[in-house]
Design goal:
Structural class: alpha/beta
Oligomer: single chain
Helix content: 25-40%
Shape: globular
Largest sheet: 9 strands, mixed
Order of helices and strands: HEEEEHEHEEEHEHEHEEHH
Bound molecules: glutamine
Length: 245
Amino acid sequence: MKKKILALIMVLAFAFAMTSCGSESNGKLVMVTNATFPPYEYVDGDDCAGIDIDLAQAIADELGMELEVQDIDFNSIIPAIESGKADMALAGMTKTPERENNVNFSETYATAVQSIIVKEDSSIKGPDDLKGVKIGVQEATTGHIYCEDDYGADNVIAYTSGANAIEALKTGKVDAVVIDNLPAKKFVEANEGLKILDTDYVEEEYAIAIAKDNDELLKEVNSVIKKMKKDGSLQEIIDKYIKAE
Ligand code: GLN
């Protein structure tokens, strides 16, 4: 009898633990990002700020939940969604067929292109001139993947952040940096002697990553994005950060 009661208590305790540990069940919406990607996400004092943070906050507000932002390595973002440690990822993340094997993507909320940054006096004029030179990229990003495919892994050096890749360009360790256009603009504004080439490299679309088994959140997020596109509030967020200075 004692054993049965103990077993019952254990079953109940387990059931309780199961319902109380889901991050959504306590009214918290956990977002992961990598805050080295201005204007989408960057560190501002003790907090993360940027387009993706404001968009996530608007989604949390619509769902009546509290937003928690976790700043992790770009490389760890998809695993965090897959394992359920986080509910959604907003990280200027491009929707790609490969990533769709591991996570679901929401409606697209922004478009981007891969830009090429060089020193002002560089002889590199466009994507064709990247053949045979050293290219700096941010690790595990689409820029990294495209450059390895197009120019060979030996010519591509991956850095943990876009800022580190830019530092390598300034000190001559690489001849060009390939990174998304808005961060490219911010990096060139913040660093003298660099320029963005007029020729874009690859076009892509940003979307929110959500776990494959969380259809409910995907539906909710999609309806908020649709609404924000319609009423102009999504564009307002983007404009706020682009016209900021
Ligand atoms: N858009 C690129 C990607 O998804 C870069 C994103 C980033 O560095 N935060 O890979």
